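Hey, I was hoping to borrow your eyes for a little while. No rush at all, and the record is pasted right below.
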Amino acid sequence: MAYTVRSILGKIRLHRSDLREAELDYITQETVRKICRLTMLAQKMVVLPFVGPTAQLALTDSAGEDVNRVHLVRIQESTINTPSAPSFTSVTSGGTLSAGTYIYKVVAVGPQGWISLPSASSNSIVVTLNSVNTITLPAAPTTQYGFDHFTLYRSTNGGSTWSVASPFYAASASVVDNGSLTFVSSALPTYATGDYKTMSETNEVFMNDTLPKPDSSFGDPMVWAFDALTSTINLYPPASNAYANGGNLEVTYSYIPRGEIDTVPLPPEAEDGIIYGTLAEAYIFTGPSQNIQLGKMYETKFNNETSNLKSVAIQGNSGRMAIPANPLGGRRKKPFGAFGSSSGWGW
């Protein structure tokens, strides 16, 4: 469950009630940023679309946070091209459609379940009550691993909201929408899915103004390097025009929050570390409750908690160790982590 800076402040005020709340709030937020920077536990995953040929992609956080470290980059090698837009006509009687401004889109689906980006919108028609719409679907888009069917999306308010039809449709099919089709409210897909390959990381070291990896020949990217100065992900070799129809990079990175922090972007294990780190700074402040010795003690506890959190980050997992009861008596330890299993050990 997410926790907030406000919930932590209540515990800290008991120790330094002589300090103003704004001072304690500032120290707490700076401690959260420090833990995010040291442990890299605050992470996000984004999908960066690109069109080849290209040598680098910009990585910017949508919320304006500082990118701390890029951890994993996966490239989408196989995609389904975006289909052409459908078209439709409408007659004013014979159905049970509600009045509205109707628009249709399609999404192509492959036999593996991969989906394309939504097509462009069809023509728009202001439909009257009890009308019947006849939609002509486009031809199948080109795809390396086959096409299976179209999913049909409809908007009745000019594109403000969308719903998806439950049946699936073949390419170039003619679909009659007379009010009998079942449409369920659904957002349009925001990126194409497909086959992803994990890329290796390399160091980008400049020597004599040259790159250690050749950047003049294009091909299928195999490795990546993150340039923190320009906040770009450089691909080696750069993506060739084989990606002219587009591809995606799935990027996992850690970040450092900027501005006012409300919800703490760290796992529950970090709460003790935030409290100890804040108290270590707070007890150094001049005031009736100043206690430098206590500040040093809490600094030691903060360093220990940070070491534990780094272990959590290395394992790639968060969670306390569960110790369920052993039916034969005694206790049985059961680990949960990237390198653990559900088998456990004990007696």
Observations:
- The longest strand covers residues 66-78.
- The helical segments are 5-13, 21-39, 271-282, 292-315.
